[in-house]
Amino acid sequence: MASPPRLKRRREFLRVAGKGSRAARPSLVLQALPETAGPLRVGFTATKKLGNAVVRNRAKRRLREAARLLLGQDAPPGWDLVLIGREGTGGRRFDQLLADLRGALRQAGVLPQGSGRPQPPAAGP
């Protein structure tokens, strides 16, 4: 699966934060802005409140992988998304992180409410 295109410029992040809607979950905050044309693009950020660079980078890596799994190929076009890491991002079980992201995407209207996307298999017995 390919990763969705990225938001990289500060002004893109600020535009989504200023005009978009927000959905908060224990492990992340999603900011979503519908656009009329173009592919879905995703940006990732983590503030210094989370901890040092190692902690922030781990949180962003986990968010990138969750976004790749949920939005990789069948991403609905026309959205700019910003995923913000929270304290729970680094230590939360990955299946719970995916559920948080899926719920936030539904709340923001990116995914339909009854989206039957396949979930990755649960780890362990």
Automatic annotation (TrEMBL):
Annotated signal peptide: none
One Pfam family here: Ribonuclease_P
Record-level GO cellular component terms: ribonuclease P complex
Any single biological process term in GO: tRNA 5'-leader removal
GO molecular function, one term: 3'-tRNA processing endoribonuclease activity
Reactions it catalyzes: Endonucleolytic cleavage of RNA, removing 5'-extranucleotides from tRNA precursor
PROSITE patterns (UniProt xref): RIBONUCLEASE_P (PS00648)
E.C. no: 3.1.26.5
Superkingdom per UniProt: Bacteria
Keywords linked to the UniProt accession: Endonuclease, Hydrolase, Nuclease, RNA-binding, tRNA processing
EC top class, as a word: hydrolase
Family: Belongs to the RnpA family.
Record note on quaternary structure: Consists of a catalytic RNA component (M1 or rnpB) and a protein subunit.
Role played: RNaseP catalyzes the removal of the 5'-leader sequence from pre-tRNA to produce the mature 5'-terminus. It can also cleave other RNA substrates such as 4.5S RNA. The protein component plays an auxiliary but essential role in vivo by binding to the 5'-leader sequence and broadening the substrate specificity of the ribozyme.
NCBIfam families attached to this UniProt entry: rnpA (TIGR00188)
Protein name: Ribonuclease P protein component
Natural source organism: Pseudoroseomonas cervicalis ATCC 49957
